[in-house]
Amino acid sequence: MTEFTLSYREVIPDQASSENWKEITLSTGGTQSTLQDIKVAERANGFCYEDSTKYHTRNRFIYWRINYDILELVEYSLDVNLTGNRIRYKFKDTPILDGISIHETMENIIVLVPTVCSVHRLIFSHPDKFHRQDKLLGTHPDLAAPSIFSRATGLEARNPSTFHVFSGPSTASDDLPTLACSYFLPETEEAIFVLAYSSNELLLLKQSPNGQTVSSELKGESLMPRFLSGLAEKFRQRNSDAENIVSLLILVVDFETYVLTLSRDGHLKFWSCTKGQCVAVIDILAETGDVVKDRVQGAILRKAVDENGSESIIAVYMSFTTGSRFYILKPVISGQQIRIVRLNTLYPSENDLIDFAIQTNRLWSAWRSEDGECVVYTASYKSNNWTRVILETLPDEDPLNMSDMDEHYEPRQFYLDYIFHPGRFPLSVISKALSIYKRQSIIADSHLTASGLRQRVCIAMENEIRDALIRPMVCEDDYLNCTEWCWQKFVGAVFLRKMSFSFLRPMDPLEHMTLCSDNMYRDQFINFSMLAEDMDTTGDVMDLFEIIVYLEQQMSEKFLRVFDKELYNLQAPDVVMANLLERIQSEMDSQFSDQVITMVNKITDLYKAMHKVLELLRYENTLANPDNEINPSALYQFSSQLGVSLVAGCLRQQAQTRFQICRNLLLICNILLNSKNSEWGVLEAIRSVCSPEIVVLTQASFGMLWLSGLTALVNLPQESSMQRLTPIKLSPVFNLRTTNSCAGLLELFISSTGGDEARKSFARVKCSDEALAHWHLSLLPFLNHMRHIIWPISGGTVLAEWLLSSGQHLWLQQYVRLLSNWCEWNSCTRSFLLAASFLTTGENYKAQELFQEAAKGIFSDQFLEQRILKGVEENPMKAYTNYYLKVIQLFELHKARDCAISVANTALSIVEPDDPLAIKRGPLSHRLAASVMYEQGFRLLHLSTPEALEKQVKCFLAAKSVLQLCNPDYAWVVRPTDTEDEEEIAFEPLAGSGKDLEVFKLQKQVEVVNINAIKRDLLFASAKLKLVRFDSTSPVNVTTPIELVTLLNSAGLFKTALEICTNFNLSYNSVFETLTKHSVLLTEEDHPGAWNWLAENDLQDLPVNRDSAADVVWQLLQECLEKYEKPNMTVLHNVICKKIINMKANIPIWLLASYKVRNAAELLRLLHSSGRLAEAVELANDYLLAAMGYGKEFYGFDRPLAPTAPAFCLPVYAIQNLINELDVQNSKSIEKPYNKEYNNLKDLFTKYLATATRISNELFSV
Fold first, then answer.
1. Residue 368's beta-bridge partner residues?
2. What are the alphabetically sorted keywords of the record (predicted)?
């Protein structure tokens, strides 16, 4: 893999979604921990799956965190949404040690957890077991996949074979371990735990797969008797703490398992797990030849997180009073001799280390700087150069410092917008902060939506402000001051509770040169073709970026806000910059312009350097050939909610960086043109070539930056609104999150149409599987494709279409406004889409004006050509006619008839007199059009091909749609009928005429077809088309509904079959019998192919566990039964139960419950006649008890048996027959198998009869 030479940048994904945790409490019985005051540090780490060739394990990881006795495990994927992915284990009163490790086998994921008195193996199924229906997820990307934690139970974690409670070494007295490490040996499936005590004792625990645990102490080589060894260690500890173990790990070298311990003085010891003793002691400083006079202040040992059996790399960190260093080492074993080989030594500039991690080629370290801030550095073993990772700037705890307040400032709204800004704070953090802030009245609730939590925050803050105001009457200034103080206090509480993780992503060259200008050199860009082709120009580009960074450092916040505000108000960037240049020079030092010119003079070829930067800022050259084949694996890239958030965060960062570059380039151009110190040819090239393009790029970058900061509107488009826009053929919108939580507009777009389009484009890039294997390799190329879609001057209209289709009308209006005065690309298309938006929101006159304005682009804008004018490009007048007909149709669908008439008049004034506008209205023209389409569909019945069937569906659909525009009295057409059908009509002769009865035979030639008949024809054809598309072997020439239902049943298209039965008055019995059969068969044996036909039955509304086909099909059966069984009827209940009984399966509880309420007597007879005596007896008992008032609601009784209750009857003869049957069965066997059931039922039945007789007598006496 090619070494990445640029720096990295932190991006914090949106973690504001509600957290639904599965809670499991474990009590191992170890009690010694409760007797000591134990302090363990909070820790967090992660694990990534090994196989990156499968989309469901690629970019998938587990994040864990420990806090005293609580372990939190969360599984994430950048490519697939996971359900049930959060689990929290509480090891009751047992602190967890920092020695957790996660391991992957072919079958399982194993989490090893050491605590101060026990060790645990938490075992979860491997993701491969959950993804046997890959094709289903490919067809239905909105279906989430189950996490490996979704099936975890407390019973499994409490299984004695998965944990062990240990006792400390004999020499450790009552001490508890302070350090731990763990490892899993895949060959033997043995878990190894090592625990270190403050007295330097080491306890080794080996746990076999069946839970058997062997405990042993690791001992150093010594001639001292064993009973004195502990005493010697105690004595040695009193004299010096240099030998104290400060870090340990388990390492496998040449198939031998070793425990490595690092002491405070820098001695590395190798302990053999096989021999149970120390086999080597290595002085790191002496072995590496380094001479350090200072005493070691601290030491940490780590191993490579991506190591394999053939290459084990470790790193030792040592700090001294004069500095610190990292030793990168490789253990080498030769016979009985163990030594280490130094691969490199890295010398960091910081001294206060927080933590570090190593890979086989790179080291990552986190430090605390002198001002208390966290900084992160990374270094490659090859280059020895430390590169600072650019961390995300955290939101200011005092948001008032971040905004330019105006006279309309309202604290409540401002702080609410700040706190609930998409991705800023997780909802769980806000909820926890609220519970701490107002403990007495607010309880933390992780299931709250954003709107619900927002309301609770408002209530809490209003109460707090009221309590803080001493006097009931205060002036406005005092009230505002008190309000701000209370809100700032709450924001501080939110910051204290914030916990999240982030990604360190690679930067592109523009970001690196902007953010790491103090650490760049030419060779860094050798892997980037646009910069590697001319390294001299690259050097000039680097010098130019030094100026860009210098200007950014000199800019004041006030200037930046003014520049942004003027651009938002549609002022030209070059004009704004020219007006601000004088103010900039007055704010900065007098030598400001001279300094810029001096730095510019260092550049050899300024024009070429500036042209190269502009080339990097364009995006057109990043696209793949649209004719390339699609790589299916790439279609899942960054498609999960977390992946979408990551991409949105990266785009937001890149938009900010690119806008800064454009703005500062514009400032450089203005300074140079004003000073006129450069050569005339260079200045003219900058003025005429570079400056105009910089202006356009500045405006485009500002548009992207503005877009990346928007919050999506929560109102989703209504289906009726979208249907009225069907004439303009908008691109479909899918996977639109219907959530109440605040989400960024860019995130919503990427999770929907935008991300899908980017993935389709990205999937055509010819790249190796290695380039797609990990997110940090595929992220930058994917961002290029995503940026192209939202780049205003790319020529696409996907974003504007999506804003209209997704109901983001306000943002569409603002988006069009921002591009209105400079962006010539697709300007008429934007006007057209904005007009449709105004039409949807009821602003018809604005829409009319924009539609007329958009007509100018029908020959220049690709959208208008493809969607509006298809097939009429050669005739300009015909094109205008077609355009205005579309517009008139839109106005008519929105019932804006006055605008339709006005547009028609405009159209008539444009077209030539000999080619009048073909506007025909009224029932006759509609019926004529419908008749033509229906006749075409009717004739296609004779063609038995899928293509003809598809055309037939379209014809019937068009006929139905046109007839719906007619008055119901005229909504019909005629069709020819079978000429062989004759009808006899008899005429009786007149009385007294003497003539015989005359009989005439009439042949019926046509018949009237109303809209309902056309709908049935459409349904019939659509069902056949769906069947053929699902199973290409199915016959097309199906002519009868019964035959079609049979074929649909065989294919598993049950909902379609039921719809045919409903519309053609057929019995549902065969459909429910087949569906019941599939339910029983899938329960007995899972069949992965079932997902194929299940997916065709519209599963979106089924709240079931999607990893089990059996659960899904039973839920489908229940949904269909509830929909198609008539009230108070049990025909379908009876069919289903008979089928289940015939297949010797158990009747589901929900089906029994429904049957009991509707007709318990029929169910009783069915069970009895089927030989299910035990179930029949149980039902009869419950039925009798319900009649007497015990559980009456479960059997449909409003009131129990009482004198005042309405009359009802029980199947006494059926119950008596059941009692007699039990008696017969008992008499046939000596064991009397039903003796108890017989006596209980007979007694209860006798009691019921007595009660019924008594009540009847009371009613008679009354």
1. 374
2. Nucleus, Transport
Distance CA 216, CA 213 (A): 10
Q: What is the DSSP letter of 570?
A: T
Task: Give 813-844 pLDDT, tens digit per residue.
Answer: 999 999 999 998 899 999 999 999 999 988 99
535-556 exposure pattern, b = at least 16 Cβ within 10 A, e = fewer: eebbbbbbbbbbbbbebbebbe
Residue with tokens 């769980």: 428
CA distance 201 to 220: 10
| Residue 1232 per-residue DSSP state | -
Query: Which pLDDT score, from 0 to 100, does residue 616 have?
Result: 92
User: CA-CA distance, 285 to 267, in Å (whole number)?
Assistant: 8
Beta strands in 68-117 (DSSP E): 70-77, 82-83, 86-91, 101-104, 108-114
Bridge partners (DSSP) of residue 263 are 245
CA atoms of 17 and 450, how far apart (whole Å): 9
Judged by DSSP in three states, 18 sits in: coil
Reported as a single tens digit per residue, the pLDDT across 709-746 is 998 887 666 666 777 888 888 877 777 765 545 688 99
User: Which tens digit of pLDDT belongs to each residue from 1065-1084?
Assistant: 999 999 999 999 999 998 88
Tell me the pairing of strands 22-26 and 86-91: parallel
Q: Is 179 helix (H, G, I), strand (E, B) or coil?
A: strand
Distance CA 677, CA 74 (A): 61
pLDDT band at 138 (very low <50, low <70, confident <90, very high): very low
Residue with tokens 């690092």: 262
Lowest-confidence region among 289-298, 636-645, 695-704, 978-987: 978-987
Please, are residues 316 and 306 in contact by the beta-carbon 8 Å criterion?
no
Largest Cα–Cα separation, the chain: 145
Question: In angstroms, rounded to a whole number, what is the distance separating the alpha carbons of residues 423 and 645?
Answer: 8
Q: Which range (415-429, 579-593, 987-1001, 1214-1228) has the least confidence?
A: 987-1001
Cβ-contact 402, 394 below 8 angstroms: no
**What does the pLDDT read at residue 919?**
44
CA distances from 67 to 14, 44, 90 (A): 23, 9, 10
Cross-strand partners of 73: 64, 87
Instruction: Please tell me the pTM assigned to this model.
Output: 0.72
